[in-house]
Design goal:
By secondary structure, this protein is α+β, with helices and mostly antiparallel strands. Helices cover about 25% and strands about 20% of the residues. Helix 6 runs parallel beside helix 7. The longest helix is centred in the middle third of the chain and has 21 residues. The relative contact order is 0.17.
Length: about 300
């Protein structure tokens, strides 16, 4: 007689119970959670590759909302770090709503702000300088990009400093096509500057370039920030004569991230991405002293990065 599935399951359950009664239960071995592998920022190198003393310190930080970051004491860290130039991204704040704590900072008398034309709480970048630049411009000369408030360029006597908040490809990659257009146009803009004088590009470039640049590369190949298209865009930038300063100095340094999602205790586990960069004209590489990831600084889902150069 053929038995139904439920009957078979009931019999199996009964058999298991009987076996359990006659055999002592073995304690299950619980797998110990792996200790997170953290990145230790080494001591700063103060001398350039060509033997000069570093005389310029630039810090870049995606603050994920300027007003909230100020309330989280972000400025206390800035005063301790004491860069010559401070570049901020994702300020999410129209100029009229900037907190007085930062607009009145005497350490940085020269302050420049760029926000989205349409959305005051979206995007936005800033440059704060101890020394006045020769000239400051906003955007890259293309309205479709510039309306989102993503780029400030400060010209100094011997180099350009460009800070950028590169567009995210978005959930479901809804803006990937736009991102590809951005990458082409932004690279052309940087190449035009590089003809005139070398440049430093800093900011949230919204791409983890290589597998070493994020914790879980296999699971993120179809996610914004690690698609083949975005990584290829960064390849093209480097091929155009620019250098990733961190990888120039630390080519195989793993677990070095600058962004961690707020979910799942990602930061304490160091499950992150390296999305923030200092990219240099190749002619500036001899002037490079160090490229730092200040991963202990809190106040945002990104940490600050700092560049030391001799210019």
């Amino acid at each position: 007689m053929k038995r139904g599935k439920k009957a078979e399951e009931a019999t199996a359950e009964g058999d298991n119970d009987a076996a359990a009664e006659s055999t002592p239960k073995k304690a299950k071995k619980t797998k110990e959670p792996e200790a997170p592998v953290l990145y230790e920022d080494p001591p700063d190198k103060m001398t350039s590759k060509d033997g000069r003393d570093g005389n310029m310190k630039i810090t870049s930080w995606n603050v994920d909302g300027l007003r909230a970051w100020v309330k989280k004491n972000g400025l206390s860290w800035v005063r301790e770090e004491n860069p010559d130039v401070l570049c901020l991204q994702e300020t999410k704040c129209a100029e009229k709503n900037l907190p007085a704590d930062i607009t009145s900072m005497p350490e940085y008398p020269h302050k420049y702000w760029c926000a989205s034309d349409d959305k005051g709480g979206y995007g936005g970048v800033a440059v704060l300088c101890k020394t006045e630049p020769v000239k400051v411009t906003y955007g890259i000369g293309k309205e479709e990009h510039d309306k989102e408030g993503r780029v400030i360029t400060a010209e100094f006597p011997t180099f350009y400093l460009v800070t950028a908040y590169v567009p995210n490809a978005g959930k479901g990659l809804v803006r990937l096509d736009y991102r590809k257009t951005w990458d082409v146009d932004f690279r052309a803009y940087l190449s035009e500057l590089d003809v005139q004088k070398p440049l430093v590009l800093c900011g949230d470039l919204n791409v983890a370039h290589r597998e070493i640049d994020l914790k879980n590369p296999k699971g993120n190949k179809k996610n914004a920030g690690f698609t083949p298209e975005e990584r290829e865009g960064f390849d093209r930038l480097l091929e155009a004569g620019f250098v990733d300063s961190f990888r120039e100095l630390y080519p195989e340094r793993a677990n070095a991230y600058t962004f961690w999602t707020y979910m799942m205790n990602s930061r304490s586990k160091n499950v992150g991405w390296r999305l923030d960069y200092f990219v240099l004209s190749s002619s500036l590489v001899p002037a490079l002293c160090d490229s730092k990831i200040r991963n202990k600084a809190m106040g945002s889902d990104h940490c600050p990065i700092t560049l030391r150069v001799a210019v």
